[in-house]
Structure prediction request, 187 residues.
Amino acid sequence: MDHSYRILSPRLLLRPLTEHDLEVIRTWPNHASTRIWFHDYQPIDIDRAVNDYERYRLNERDMMFVAVWMEQELAIGTASLSRIDLTMRTAELGKVYIGSPEAQGLSFGEEMVSALTAFGIGTLGLKQLELYVKVTNTRAIRVYMNCGYVHDRSYRHHRVKGATSSLIRMVYTVPRKRSIDASESQG
Prediction:
């Protein structure tokens, strides 16, 4: 989805992905320290990055953001909302990672997840966001839990080359407003 949304958090600007970002962000998942967390990782060359970008731009149900560390004026990671369904008011949170080595370990992941979740709820009016994460990615699971996501179910994901990895689905659901019971209000 070609969008113009910008999300501000205390240290970050999440801005739309542009074609100019492709060379930098395509290299991040290719680093061994990052790619181990992808359950379906395939190396990304520039042709694949351009093709993926063009598919993304034409898909009205996806929003891809680049996280910029404002103090350093440095692109440090990505995050996305995909499979956005404004009728059902749901979406999938994904492609959340810190690719820039300088920014790893500084709690930017939690800031990104929190900001993107708040954007989905407040701006898009979503009621539920889901995500999938490798069961071995305990750091990410902790980040998601700190942002209000809960474990929903587990999956055994099969890869093309016969290797498998277990995934968990985590969900953030907007709490329902409680109505005041008539007997309580007369009290």
Remarks:
- The mean pLDDT is 85.
- The longest helix spans residues 108-122.
- Residues 7-185 form a domain with the Aminopeptidase fold (CATH 3.40.630.30).
